[in-house]
Every structure is written in structure tokens, then in C-alpha cells.
Amino acid sequence: MERHRHIVVVLPHPDDESMIAGTLAAHIQQGAKMTYVCLTLGEMGRNMGNPAFANRVTLPQIRKQELEEACRRIGIQDVRMWGYHDKMVEFEEQGELSIKIEQLLSDLQPSLVYTFYPGHGVHPDHDATGAAVIEAVKRMPSHSRPKVYCVAITPNRRKALGAPTIVNDISHYVDQKIHAIKAHQSQSQMLLESLKKEDAADTGKHSTEVFWEYSF
Fold first, then answer.
1. Of 154, 112, 119, nearest to 23 (Cα)?
2. CB of 201 closer than 8 Å to CB of 135
3. Looking at the predicted structure, is the pLDDT value of residue 166 above 90?
């Protein structure tokens, strides 16, 4: 895995970061500074825990606490919550959002940004977030643009985008990734139950994380 001095992660929901927790933990272990911008608190999430322990009123604060704990488990110290409305990111003024992201990137000068690949995020918030990040980086002078590595989760992603640009071996971070997922107790119970049922011999299926570099 290549080394980076400062990495910015821009994703819309608490628990999105846990999808790539192995990669993020590996970067931090290598000494990279990391800033995570989470656009919403996921307050419209359908899951309330299993058995339920949250409700529509308490869910935002619970998810905020879960996000903070997950980031602690990954090792992310700079966590910024921007307070946009869950399931409404696509309806935000995209120009304003991209300018806000551009200002952040100009201030922090990261060498790498992680986000969703526009059109391949499945959830409208994922796609809107990725599109805003791409627009923000496009605004920057070409000589000072960070690399952008994107998460793509649509079924046709390999057909549409080709093979992943980046394949990270996270075999040393699988346990840490699962530990981060477990922090999101209100949302992740079904996933955790499926992980518990897997035989130890199947752990290898979780030992890589893949990304597509966005070409400007």
C-alpha cells in the first residue's frame, strides 16, 4: 500500500467508513494523518437495533456515538460531522457542497481522498457525495489535486469501470475492521450475525478491499 501524508475521507453516513476500515487502519498504521467528513448522522436509517433499542427521536444521537466509537477503533482522530439531512444529500445545492469540500481540501492539502464513485454507490446519498467530491477536486489546480480513490458497489461496477485500480491486502486488519463494524450496533446486527456464522477458513474472503481511482 502506498504511503500518504494526509488522507481525507468524505462519506455520507455513519457506518460507511467501516466498509473500508481495513484500508483506513492500514494507512493510519503507516503514519498517515486522516480526516473523516461524515455528511449526515444517518437519522433516517430503517434499523433501530436488533432487538430494537433506538427510536426515530434517539437514533441520531445513538448513531453519532456509534460513529465516534467506530472511528476510535479504526484510529481516526479528526472526525467532522457536517449535519446534512440523511437521504437528502442529493437535493442539496451541489455547487455549494462542492465548494465547501474544495475549501476543506485546500486547507488540509491531502494527498489522497476516499469517497464513493458517482453512479456506482447504489444509495442516492452515496452518489451525490461522490459527485460533490469529484467536482471539488476538479475545481482545484491540476498540480495540487489529490488522488481520489472511489468505492463502487453496483453489481455492474467491473463491467462499467474495468478492474479495480487498487486492491489492498487488509488481512492484518480484518479483526480491527469487524471491531469497527460492531461499533454500529443499531445498524449492523444482521451483518454481524452473518459474520459470526462464517467458518474461520472463510476469513480470506474479507482480506481485500478494492477501489477505483477517478481519472480527471
1. 112
2. no
3. yes
